[in-house]
Design brief:
The chain is an alpha/beta fold. It has six helices and five strands. The protein has a five-stranded parallel sheet with strand order 2-1-3-4-5, with helices on both faces. Helix 4 links the parallel strand 3 and strand 4. Helix 3 runs parallel beside helix 4. The longest helix has 13 residues. The radius of gyration is 15 Å and the shape is globular.
């Protein structure tokens, strides 16, 4: 039997179940592409351009997941994760790191700092969405 997938916003029940994502990256193009991919996958997305911007957005937007770039001016992904882990509430939010430099050393360091997962910016949209969905389910 064919399976039909509801379109985002199709029902009130779906809207209530939207998972919220705080998307953090200093590259406008990366943010635009990732935001479009995540919204198409039925996530509510709030964007931040830097780690400092992300921390200020957390005052009014409590995401289910944070998707963050690694290298950003001022406060990069590593520093952002370290700051998040100091806060009682923010420490519970899963973090998926996006990076162009997906080296084993970076991955080990970020996982040690408290990031839950790591994906290359060059990964397919399907892989990024699959990783976000896994974190959204608590996995």
């Amino acid at each position: 039997f064919p399976v039909t997938i509801p379109i985002a916003g199709q029902t009130a029940a779906l809207a209530e179940n939207l998972k919220k994502i705080l998307l953090v990256d200093d590259d406008d193009g990366v943010r635009a592409v990732m935001s479009r991919i995540l919204k198409k996958a039925n996530f509510e997305v709030c964007e931040a351009a830097t780690g400092h911007d992300a921390l200020s957005k957390l005052e009014t937007f409590l995401p289910d997941i944070i998707v963050s770039g690694l290298v950003m001016p001022g406060m990069g992904g590593k520093e952002l994760v370290a700051e998040l882990r100091k806060d009682k509430i923010a420490a519970t939010i899963p973090v998926l790191m996006l990076t162009g430099s997906d080296s084993e050393e970076n991955e080990i360091e970020l996982l040690g700092l408290g990031a839950q997962d790591f994906v290359s910016k060059s990964a397919s949209p399907a892989l990024v969405v699959a990783r976000v969905r896994r974190l959204a389910k608590g996995g």
